[in-house]
């Protein structure tokens, strides 16, 4: 006999799954944001102009200034009698103004105007960290800089403790509200992330909250508050490394499940991303897979700062776990070290342009591996030790990499990978994309050593890494380590010899279960390399808590089964009933082999809650 509570639960879950259709079956592109073709703000923040506009900027002193292009060639010399200088229209490119009596240079960028609004499904994205780097009065300027280069998604940063300083007490207005409103108004899709608990949720703030209901209530609150403005959330940043808590895969899985139900309960269209990986540790990936996390994330997210040649194996390791979930890389770069004046923290002249070249390569190689969003790290001036990540300076003016991002955003708009050229001596990546609003085939191409190649078909257009048009278009092409974009008619693909791009793994994904299981261990008993909890070698019996939550709208009732390695024994409850929102603590007792054990032992708890689904907690133990 089915109780009235069970009937209500079945109905509400069925309704929720209908609402979740976009998340469970879409490409996780997020809700549409209203977009037009962006135009620069009247005061041209960052000295960014569109091709054809007259360039008019302020300079720090009078005198004679030389305007230099990206090839360090003098374009013109100008005498400045006041702080404003008129340079007239300039071609697409990166420029610097220098004065022999001034210890720094002033930069400006000229980029091509977008011919269409940035596609809602374009994979070109950028980590901006708007809330943490810019005061509210500069946010509109920075959002404009992002929109002009064809960025689809931007990533922000959030402090949980700042928004909810006491349990249940949310501040009415914060910098995060301003950032969400301003970026959304600029036509940008916002991904939000956080990486610390308030002290009231866990005194060890870099660790997850002790009670997952705290995470649930927080994310439910902000998802409702920023609905339609923040379109995606990563429930934690890089939880798999020590600096952000050093959590096991099992812990990451339990948090993910609570976060999923929190966000979807108030905003079914909002994307719930996997709480993003910093590493590709095999033990963490195995732990995650064992915890059946795919029903609880719409995208599978990770970070990397690895060499380009590592991308195929790195991305494949995540594809094996992600199955049909779209891959999102929400931080990536090949960063360089600053040099010279420690106050400026500026890249050398050579590395300024190397950063721009690398940005193009990072996007090409990442998109080839099948990501549906690649977020370059980072827009603002930002250093970690000797490394400079930012593509703009403190005053918002560009480094060359900002101009190369404009080339990527325009020429790889809505890019979908086709494959890689068969010539192993070349790095050549083919995409179907919409450069300047036209469906085309785009080849991003470079070579370690200079060489001349014969293209199978003549390009429609050629552009360099800064988006400057290359006037000589021919079927024979000189290729160097500096990437170029070759644009072809959309039906040219069959003329190329290429290896198809990697594909997602088409594995089935069950529905999510509102019942979530969690185990808590002291952080000093975690062995991160094995994604496991350390057990003293001489222990023959273990007893520790397992928490069971019901994040559904009504009561849940089911059976529980524990699976342990051969030679082990377990005692645990075999039935469970929870009211909506309830958390219960149960003890799991394990009897270990008297003869001892080695390696990693996997303990699996599985709950069958009928129509509500199946709940899994798998965790790993390792002997000291």
Sheet of most strands: 8 strands, parallel
Q: What's the total count of β strands?
A: 36
| Structural class computed from helices and strand pairing | alpha+beta
* N-to-C span: 49 Å
Note down, in words, how this protein is organized.
The chain is an alpha+beta fold. 22% of the residues lie in helices and 30% in strands. The chain is built from 12 helices and 36 strands. An 8-stranded parallel β-sheet has the order 12-11-10-9-8-16-14-13. Strand 6 and strand 7 (106-111) form a beta hairpin. Helix 8 (249-266) crosses helix 9 (282-290). The radius of gyration is 27 Å and the shape is globular. The chain starts with a helix and ends with a strand. The model is unreliable at 1-26 (pLDDT under 50).
Secondary-structure blueprint:
Elements (H helix, E strand, L loop, with lengths): L3 H16 L1 H5 L22 E3 L3 E5 L4 E6 L5 E7 L3 E6 L3 E6 L7 E6 L12 E4 L2 H4 L2 H13 L4 E3 L4 H4 L11 H11 L3 E5 L18 H14 L4 E5 L14 H18 L4 E2 L9 H9 L9 E5 L6 H12 L4 E6 L3 E2 L11 H20 L4 E5 L5 E2 L2 E2 L11 H12 L4 E6 L5 E7 L6 E7 L4 E4 L6 E4 L11 E4 L4 E6 L8 E3 L14 E5 L6 E2 L4 E4 L5 E10 L5 E8 L5 E3 L3 E4 L4 E9 L8 E9 L5 E10 L1
Parallel strand pairs: 1-7, 8-9, 8-16, 9-10, 10-11, 11-12, 13-14, 14-16, 29-36
Antiparallel strand pairs: 2-5, 3-4, 3-6, 6-7, 15-18, 17-18, 19-20, 19-26, 20-21, 21-25, 22-24, 23-25, 27-30, 28-29, 30-34, 31-33, 31-35, 32-34, 35-36
């Amino acid at each position: 006999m089915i109780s009235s509570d069970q009937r209500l639960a079945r109905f509400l879950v069925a309704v929720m799954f209908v609402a979740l259709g976009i998340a469970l079956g879409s490409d996780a592109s997020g809700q549409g944001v209203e977009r037009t073709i962006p135009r620069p703000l009247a005061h041209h923040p960052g000295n960014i102009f569109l091709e054809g506009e007259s360039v008019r900027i302020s300079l720090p002193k009078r005198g004679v200034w030389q305007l230099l292009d990206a090839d360090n060639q003098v374009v013109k010399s100008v005498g400045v009698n006041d702080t404003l200088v008129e340079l007239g229209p300039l071609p697409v490119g990166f420029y610097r103004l220098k004065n022999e009596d001034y210890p720094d240079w002033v930069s400006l960028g000229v980029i091509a105007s977008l011919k269409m609004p940035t596609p809602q499904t374009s994979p070109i994205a950028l980590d901006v960290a708007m809330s943490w780097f810019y005061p509210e009065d500069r946010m509109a300027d920075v959002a404009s800089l992002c929109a002009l280069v064809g960025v689809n998604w931007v990533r922000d940063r959030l402090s949980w403790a700042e928004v909810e300083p006491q349990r249940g007490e949310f501040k009415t207005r914060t910098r995060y509200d301003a950032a969400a409103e301003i970026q959304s108004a600029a036509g940008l899709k916002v991904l939000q992330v956080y990486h610390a608990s308030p002290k009231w949720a866990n005194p060890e703030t870099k660790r997850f909250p002790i009670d997952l209901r705290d995470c649930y209530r927080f994310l439910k609150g902000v998802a409702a508050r920023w609905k339609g403005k923040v379109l995606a959330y990563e429930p934690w940043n890089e939880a798999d490394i020590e600096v952000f808590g050093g959590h096991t895969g099992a812990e990451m899985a339990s948090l993910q499940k609570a976060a999923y139900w929190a966000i979807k309960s108030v905003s079914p269209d909002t994307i719930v991303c996997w709480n993003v990986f910093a590493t590709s540790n095999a033990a963490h990936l195995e732990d995650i897979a064992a915890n059946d996390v795919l029903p609880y994330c719409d995208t599978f997210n990770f970070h990397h700062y690895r060499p380009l040649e590592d991308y195929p194996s790195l991305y494949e390791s995540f594809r094996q776990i992600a199955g049909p979930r779209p891959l999102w890389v929400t931080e990536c770069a090949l960063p360089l070290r600053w040099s010279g004046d420690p106050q400026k923290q500026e890249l050398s002249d050579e590395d300024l342009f190397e950063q721009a070249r690398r940005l193009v390569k990072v996007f090409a190689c990442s998109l080839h591996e099948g990501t549906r969003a690649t977020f370059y790290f980072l827009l603002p001036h930002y250093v970690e030790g000797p490394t400079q990540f930012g593509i703009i300076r403190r005053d918002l003016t560009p480094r060359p990499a900002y101009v190369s991002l404009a080339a990527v955003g325009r020429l790889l708009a809505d890019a979908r990978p086709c494959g890689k050229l068969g010539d192993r001596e070349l790095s050549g990546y083919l995409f179907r994309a919409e450069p300047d609003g036209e469906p085309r085939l785009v080849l991003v191409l470079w070579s370690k050593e200079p060489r001349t190649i014969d293209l199978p078909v003549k390009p429609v257009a050629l552009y360099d890494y800064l988006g400057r048009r290359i006037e000589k278009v021919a079927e024979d092409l000189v290729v160097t380590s500096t990437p170029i974009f070759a644009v072809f008619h959309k039906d040219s693909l069959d003329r190329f010899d290429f290896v198809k791009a990697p594909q997602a793994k088409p594995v089935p994904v069950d529905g999510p279960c509102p019942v979530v299981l969690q185990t808590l261990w002291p952080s000093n008993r975690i062995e991160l390399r094995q994604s496991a909890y350390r057990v003293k070698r001489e222990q023959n019996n273990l007893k520790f808590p397992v928490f069971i939550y019901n994040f559904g709208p009504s009561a849940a009732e089911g059976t529980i089964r524990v699976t342990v390695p051969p030679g082990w024994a377990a005692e645990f409850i075999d039935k469970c009933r929870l009211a909506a929102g309830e958390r219960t603590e149960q003890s799991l007792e394990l009897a270990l082999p008297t003869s001892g054990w080695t390696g990693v032992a996997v303990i699996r708890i599985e709950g069958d809650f009928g129509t509500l689904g199946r709940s899994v907690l798998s965790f790993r133990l390792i002997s000291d």
